[in-house]
Amino acid sequence: MAASFARSLRLAEPAVCRQCAFQPIRRTFTSLQNPKREIRSRPVVQQSIAEQRLAGKPSFACSRGYKTVQEAKSRHKSGPFSWQSGLLFLLAGAGLTVYFRYEKARMARARIAEANKGIGKPLVGGPFHLTDHNGKEFTEQDLKGKYSLVYFGFTHCPDICPEELDKMAGMIDRVKAKHGDVLLPVFISCDPARDTPEVIRRYLAEFHPDMLGMTGTWQEVKDVCKAYRVYFSTPPDVKPGQDYLVDHSIYFYLMDPEGDFVEAIGRNFTVDAAAKVINDHIADWKGKINKG
After folding, report:
1. What stretches pass through the bilayer (predicted)?
2. pTM value > 0.70
3. Is 133 annotated among the ligand-binding residues?
4. Residues paired with 208 in a beta bridge
């Protein structure tokens, strides 16, 4: 009985082997019966990945579309950011910071200029009638067309007025270097009894040729000091040779091309700081400015 069972196994072995051998062929024939389902890209990718694994190469280079393995490794180490993107980010941030700071300063200057104009009657400035150091009449209308820098003083001042006029000369040069001839510097005397047009002309020639001196009667000087809110202590009836004191406010009054007050510049400003204030306001001006 055992011999008959062994004989049956030997007879069945060729049949089993032939059946296993024909199985791939049958699968191939089965897949050919419906070729549309086998047209896929995935078997190709799987085959390339298998080949790479057999060759000892990483599979991510092909799956992500890199040309070389070195390119894939470099991309993997650097991550999604590069030094170019970082530099661009820093430059954009710096540019936005500078822009917002400039806009903030410009809006602050605009608020100052608008607030100083006041409502109705101007806070500083107004109609006046004087005589310049060339003997010609000069009114508030002659200030229009340019930015003007108005300073009140007197020629017999021992120290403060010379220092401030030296500072004024520095402002004139710095503004002219940046914007051209757009600033009219005006010196108004608070001592009409001694400061005649000729005296003022010789006095201002020692500081800057662009300065224009003004004087007038005691009442005319008082009126212009009142319009500019300047303290005025000169006595009205001064006799020749009489000694007296002259006191006045120490400010530079910046006026825009329309004759409106913009900002007061005090003694605490250096030449560079004062010139920057003037240049910034000139740069913000959107209207026409005479340069002649």
Report:
1. 81-102
2. no
3. no
4. none
